[in-house]
Specification:
- The structure holds 2 protein chains of 2 kinds.
- Chain A is mainly alpha-helical.
- Helix content of chain A is 69%, strand content 3%.
- In chain A, a hairpin with a 7-residue loop joins strand 1 and strand 2 (156-158).
- The longest helix of chain A has 27 residues, at 114-140.
- Chain A starts with a helix and ends with a helix.
- Chain B is mostly helical.
- Chain B has 18 helices and no strands.
- Chain B has helices spanning 2-20, 38-41, 43-69, 75-89, 100-112, 146-151, 153-158, 163-189, 192-199, 202-210, 215-230, 234-248, 255-266, 273-290, 303-309, 316-331, 333-339, 346-375.
- In chain B, helix 3 (43-69) runs antiparallel to helix 9 (192-199).
- The chains are: A mainly alpha, B mainly alpha.
- Chains A and B meet through helix 3 and helix 5 of A and loops of B.
Amino acid sequence: MRWILRSFLLSIMFLFFFYSPIFAQSSYVLPYPSFMPGSPFYKINLIKDKILKYWYFGKFGQFNYNLKQADKYLVEAKTLFEYDQFLLGQKALKKSDEYFYNIRSNLDNSKANKESIDSKRTLLKEASLKHIEALLMLREGIPEKVYWRPEKSFSTKIYLKKDIEMSISIRRKNL
Amino acid sequence: MKKLFLILYGLFLLSFSIFSYLFVDPNLIYLSNLYTGFAFNNREITTVIYLIGIIIFFIFYISFIQFGRNKLLNKRGVVVLITITTLSLLFSYPAMLSYDIFNYISTAKVAFFYHENPYIIMPIEFINDPLLSFTHAANKIALYGPFWILLSVIPFSLGFGNFLIILFSFKFLNILFYIGTLYFIWKISKKNISLIIFGLNPLVIIETMVSGHNDTVMMFLAIASLFFLIKKKIWSGLLTIILSVLIKYSTLFLIPIYFYGIFQIIKNKNLNIEKFIYFSAISMFLIFLLSPLREEIYPWYAIWFLVFTALIPEKKIIFYLSISLSFGLLLRYIPFMFLGTHFEITPVLKTLFLFFPSLILLIFFYSKKILWSRNI
């Protein structure tokens, strides 16, 4: 009995000794995909986003909000493109671009001191790099343009690569 | 004799106020000329002085209760004592035992100076802000309710950017609510002894007038709500209890009891006020005991139930437990004061110090009861 107890304790100690947490390599991490179009919770999520815009008042608050939203819609676009949902993906990417475009202006009029604003600018630079990295990977796996033909509707021509180039150029302005 | 007692009490409080300045934080640039480092470099002496101070504080408190019980201290006398206490301690150093007042100021600054939402933006995000060097919870978003943040605009604006004026304005605001609490205690109980039990309790005095905790604001609104319910003013009662919850959330535990009270009033049934107060005290005591689930039992949390226990002084065991717990809670500061660490043996000692006086009291109380029943 004592032998079993000792080996049990030793094995626990052994586990603790060799246990080491795994840390993410990237300094900026994109979120997991949230609810996707088609989910009944997607619309609720859109309403939540609109309400949160007012909750995140203030310059830094708006900075955080726009960055969070830009991240969220970039991940949404990436997931949709991977599933060949090009029209929805393009829509999500445009949303991400819009939010990303708004981020910088919030820092210019902040009452915070230079150091605080600089730290946010650094964060924005890191986010831009991560976004560009994700967009470049995305560009590799998609066609130049697609004809999107939804049911009972007219077909649309989507210039995917051009859109992604546009998104990259928006983010490059922060580097 | 009476005058001498008052003078001694006033002198003691002034000494305590001066003693509090031995704890001035080295990073508090605004009081750098008062910094001695004494409390941090002479931990043994500081602890002994604090312990003696607490014992003297409780000797005065028990004497006041005795005077009150023997009708030697009337309402006017209590008012004089409270005025002396307020004047002596208003300008004491507030971060002697807790740094919470700095958190209040930092949160107010995030909201009313930087115009950011303190529930999203942490004070630490404003790099090189002078408050960061001595604020201990700068890496946290607002911990308090929205009504408290809204109220904090008053002391924050009164300071016109001067840190020391802001600091003492926060203390002054809390003292005003303490006086308001006493007003409602008087209005509800009409008992001098209730005023003494709550208003002159060393724990209430130290945590409100020295440390400037906002728990008094929360309990002021809770007791005001109780008063309105007794007067059958349902809407005022409802509004004040909701505002109380929006100060620090703990009074959420009073909601079922208050709703039961409102229900009784609507049904035109008689509200058993004593039972109502008793259950409110029990409820707040339970949430007090449950506070380690979130962090730990902080001494100022006792104000949550002390407001109600003061209204039922005839319940002997509750009365004695309130005093012994108040004493034990103030002793909780000793391990950190002496050892200078929140780790190692400090948490164990804190728990021991907290419950030791109450345990002694309970043993004494029940052994007396058993012996008394055997004699019969």
